[in-house]
Amino acid sequence: MKKILTVLPAAALALTACETSSTSVDVTVESSSSVESVASSSSSEAVVKTLPTDYIVTEMGGYEVAGYSLSITKGVCKDKANNYDWSTVTQTGSLTQNADGTVTVDLGDGNGAQTYDFKAEGAFPTGDYYLSSMLAEPLAWGFSMTSPNNYSEAVYPTTECLLQHFGETYETFKQYIPENVADQIVIGCNELSFNGLKMTYVSHDETSIDYKLSYGESDCLLHQDFLYAYSEADCALAFKNYQEEYESGETTKFFNFDDYDQDISADESEQLKCLSVFASYAAATTLAKKTPVSEKQIKKVLKAFGSKLRKQK
Q: Which of 166, 163, 161, 47 is nearest to 99 (CA)?
C-alpha cells in the first residue's frame, strides 16, 4: 500500500524492531504494506510477530501515567449559543506489562482491560500498542503513546484492498445514492463504480486519504482530511461546515461533531477537472435516461466510508 510520508507530531508512531532470541516462532499477519517484526519474550523462548506499520489516526489526545494508572485526555466539540464550544475530558484506566511482552490496558472507555502487543519507543510506556485480538483482521486497531504526552488511537490496514475488505461496504454506500443506481454499484479491490463513474483509492497518510474520481477520459483528485476533536482548530472548522449546511437548508439537525469530522476538498488545479468529470457523467447518464450521482452524494459516500473506517459505525 502506498503511503504518503507526512507525519504529524501528535500522531507520529515511531516503529523500531526489537532483538529476538535464537528460538522463535513466526506469526504472520497478511499484509503487503510496511511491517516490522517484534519479539515477545518469555523465560525460555521468543515469539516473533509481524506488526503493521501503516496506519490512520482515528482520534488524538494526551496522556499521563503514574504507576499503573493511565489518564487519557480527549477533546469535546459541541455547540453553544450559535458557536462552537471546545473543551477536554479525562478518562482514567490502567496499564500493566506482562511477562510475555504484551501489555494489559484499560483505556477507561468502558470496554475494560484488553491485551495489546507492544513495541517500545524508548522507556515504557512510550511506544505502539496493537490490540492482540485483531492482528489477523484486515483492519487492526491500536494506539500510540509518544513523548512528552501525545496519545493517538489508530487503525492499521493489513490489506491493500481497503475498500473491498471494509465490511458492509455496499450497504454503507447505497443509502447515499439514487435508488435506481444502487444495483449498479461495482466494488473492486480499491475502486467503486456507479454506472461508469469511478472512485478509486489512491493513497493515505496518517490523517487523510486521496481518491481519484473519473469518468471516461476525465479524472480529478479528491482529498479527504480527517478532523479531530482534540484540536480546537478542527472543532472550529467542523462547526463552520455545519453552519454552511444549516444555513443552506441541507440539514435541520443540531450540531454533532461526529457528523462533520471530515473535510472533503479538491486543490484549485483539480476543481475544474472535477467539474468536467461530473459534466461528462451527467451528460452520458441523461442520454441513457439514468439518474446521475451528484457531487454532494459522492462526498457523503466518502464521509460514510471515513466514519466507518475510524469509528466502526
A: 47
Read off the pLDDT of residues 234-265 as tens digits, 9 standing for 90 and up: 999 999 999 999 999 999 999 999 999 999 99
Which three cell numbers mark 310? 475510524
The domain tally of the chain equals: 2
Q: How far apart are CA 60 and CA 118, in angstroms?
A: 19
Q: How many CB atoms lie within 10 A of CB 310?
A: 20
Residue 219: which domain range? 169-311
Same domain as 153, residue 80:
yes
101 sits in which H/E element: none
Local confidence band at 76 (pLDDT 50, 70, 90 cut-offs): very high
Is 2 domain-assigned? no
Model pLDDT for residues 14-50, shown as the tens digit of each residue:
323 333 332 222 222 333 344 565 655 444 455 566 7
- Grid cell for residue 261: 469530522
Whether residue 185 sits in one domain with residue 150: no
End position of a domain, from candidates 157, 177, 203: 157
3-state DSSP call for residue 191? strand
| Termini Cα distance of the chain | 24
Pairing mode of beta strands 69-79, 185-187: unpaired
Average pLDDT, the chain: 82
Is the whole-model pTM more than 0.85? no
